[in-house]
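In this supplementary section we document a worked example of the pipeline. Step one takes a protein sequence of length 468 as its only input; no multiple sequence alignment statistics are reported here. Step two produces a three-dimensional model, which step three serialises into structure tokens for compact storage. The input and output of this example are shown verbatim.
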Amino acid sequence: MNCPVCGSTIAAKRNRCDKCGEDLTIYRKMYLLSNKYYNEGLEKAKVRDLSGAILVLKKSLELNKRNTNARNLLGLIYYEVGETVSALSEWVISKHFQAEQNDADDYMESLQSNPTKLDSLNQTIKKYNAALQYAKQGSDDLAIIQLKKVTNLNPHFVKALQLLALLYMKSGETDKAVKCLIKASKIDVSNTTTLRYLHELGEMTTSLREESGNTDRENVRRVQEPTVFPTTTYKEDKPNVWVFVNLILGIAIGILGVFFLIVPTVENNYKNQLKKQEVEYTEQINKNSQNQGSLDKDNKDLQQKVKDLQAQIDGFQVVEYDDTIYNELFKAAQLYVQELMSGNAANIDYVKVANELSKVEFDKLDKQEAKDLYNQIKDATYIKASEKLYDEGHDVLYADRKYEEALQTLNKAYEYDPENVDAIYFIARSYHQSSDYENAKKYYNIILDKFPDSKRAGEAQERLSSLN
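The serialised model returned by step three reads:
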């Protein structure tokens, strides 16, 4: 212990400073009480009562701000619940009070030595703040998308799990809310916010649990009733020589056990593992042979399809007709043939082919063969192109709040597939977010008129009611 007045070192049982004469009785009691709170916080942290541990450790630091053990433990708990900034703050303060032989050095070095992880945690905080802003503005769907990304990047972010559960509760998805809250309770068993949400959720879903049995009720009750653990007083243990003697004997017995018991078992396991890998390699070789045969068949089918399409294209090259009418059709057909000749059906750029085909003036085609070719390419590309454009418009542009660009992409998806109800819905949502309420109403009504039985009809009706 150091004197708080002059900073000199004080003997263990001295109650007065030999240098400045300051009475240290009260200070020593405060130090002992701070250590007691630290021990209580450590016990709570071991049983994952993290909220209780944070409160106790803060009391410890109020009594002794230089208690670096308590401050480092508080930083670890903040890191465990996903609050990285608070954790780093505590470790930096700890480093300031104890520059040498401080565990905070290892904690900060472990975090800062991995730029990828540090950037991931930084993105987590930004996305959580963005989700919180969306939730305040009433954009619950965007908030849920961001929070899912947050919980994927940092599954221990308790506040993100709680906010996600709250949004699920608001939208009536009680099962998903319960799952989020149970995950949060496993991280921090006595968090009052989690327990309050579970209590409210229990009242909301009483009838549902009575129909499905008592399993959910017991799970919720088990999370809501945290175990109370007795706390112990601070006590310095005296050195015990027999502990070291027993430790040496235990090491010796462990070495003998390794040679006589573990080594033969490991050797047998290794042999069994080699045999198992040999069988797996044989099965994999057989499977690859079968897959190669399937790929060869698909390749032959694609080549035959290319030949058929090329034959149709060659059939249009007749002098009696005005070739300029068919130029765009020829370009679209040749582009489609090139995509098929790439040899991989999964990598065909359907959007590119569909864009080229949309330039064709179908009404001017006077040959039936040309119309058949047009319809064949349209059937093969338009629906898949619509799906690709919807994914880009919804998952990328709409999620990033680029509503003007999202409208261009989603309208193209709707043009290629008028049955794509998801594209219609998010066209309306994009107009809605852009405050173009007339166009938003127009597309909401399209869903209600043409797709009354779809899953988007109820959402469209709710949005339309809010606008009206």
